[in-house]
Amino acid sequence: QNLGLGQTFTMQGATLKQLHTNYGEERLLLGGNVGSVRFEDVRAESELAGGSLPWLAGTHSVRVVDCFDVSFVDCRFGTISGWDDLYNQIVGVGSVRLIDSTVAMFDCTAEAVGTGFHPAVECVGTELLAVDLTATGSSGADSYISFSGNCRGHAHGGSAGMSVDANSSLTHVDCAFAGGSDGIDGCFGGSYPPAPPIWGSAANVTELDGAPLHLTAPFTASTLDSIPVTVQGGLDDLTFLVMGPAAARRDLPGFVGDLLLGGPHGSVQRFVLGTGSLHTVDLPAPALGPLGIAALHLQAAHVRPDPAAPNGSLVMLGPPRVVTVLGSAW
Asked: Is residue 146 very low, low, confident or very high in pLDDT (cuts 50, 70, 90)?
């Protein structure tokens, strides 16, 4: 929390999971960050245990509040349902909640399980770019007639995979949003409409066609070895690789997505990889800093034909990756 401008936090390859009873806590809670936050290959689940307080049995796996620059790449977020003793039913919670922030999600999965009105990803006052994101909302709840003849439970339909409020904007490419299954009203026989993929105004949602970009690179590298990088995209797309010494967020007019790296003047480099769906390149290790460590920030970009664009093509910025380069002392 409270990262200052120019500061960066990076988490890679972590699995975050913890058991709580009667209540839950976020596995990832980000708040008040002006600096850059990067997550790669992170798994986070909020695991729910039984409790007698309905709708208080858990919380989101991830909550982001008042953050300027957050990205998730190849992350998996989910919730594990608990049991509500009062209504004898499984209860759940949403997976990711984004509030008053700017966030990019690439190659991620978010799932809200259990019952309750819980979208997998909820945007409140947030600008979200989602590329190759799979988001599935929570299922509906059932009601039934008990042995004593009383109606037990509160039946309702499932929830949307994505929720976008009036103060948010969502741009998505090659995403799969799915609503949760409906509940069964065993007391009154009511029916509920299927949950939509997205809750929110269509005016705040932009869907773009085309193949998403995928960028792979090692978490760490040695100064003695080259750094293997692979970029995968559309067959007809002109692909670039951008690299720099620091994380940052810069809005480039006319581009889809933000440039998520930076550095001193002249330190950001761009390489043209050409057309084709797969590119592999070996990069030289950068010069080390005073502690014998250097960070190499990478981001893929491509230009794709788009008849609807003003100049007939669209420039899209893809996922960022961070490589930590270690000297021989490490």
From this structure: confident
Phi-psi region of 100 (alpha: psi -120 to 50; beta: other; left: phi over 0): left
Contact 320, 38 (CB under 8 A): yes
> Average pLDDT for residues 208-234, to the nearest whole number?
92
The span from the CA of 73 to the CA of 39, in Å, is 6
Pairing of strands 169-173, 205-208: parallel
Backbone angles phi, psi at 63, to 5 degrees: -130, 125
Reduced to 3 states (helix: H, G, I; strand: E, B; else coil), residue 54 is coil
CB atoms within 10 A of CB 198: 23
Report d(CA 101, CA 1) in Å as an integer. Answer: 13
How much is the mean pLDDT over the chain? 85
Give residue 138's pLDDT: 78
Cα separation, 303 vs 283, in Å, equals 22
**Do residues 79 and 59 touch, judged by C-beta distance below 8 A?**
no
Residues in the chain, total: 330
* 215-226 exposure pattern, b = at least 16 Cβ within 10 A, e = fewer: bbbeeebebeee
User: Do residues 10 and 33 make contact, with C-beta atoms less than 8 angstroms apart?
Assistant: no
Rounded alpha-carbon distances, angstroms, from residue 66 to 32, 182, 309: 5, 34, 32
**pTM for the predicted model, two decimal places:** 0.88
What confidence category does residue 53 fall into, taking pLDDT thresholds of 50, 70 and 90? very low
Label residue 56 by pLDDT band (50, 70, 90): very low
CA–CA distance, 254 with 233 (Å, rounded to integer): 20
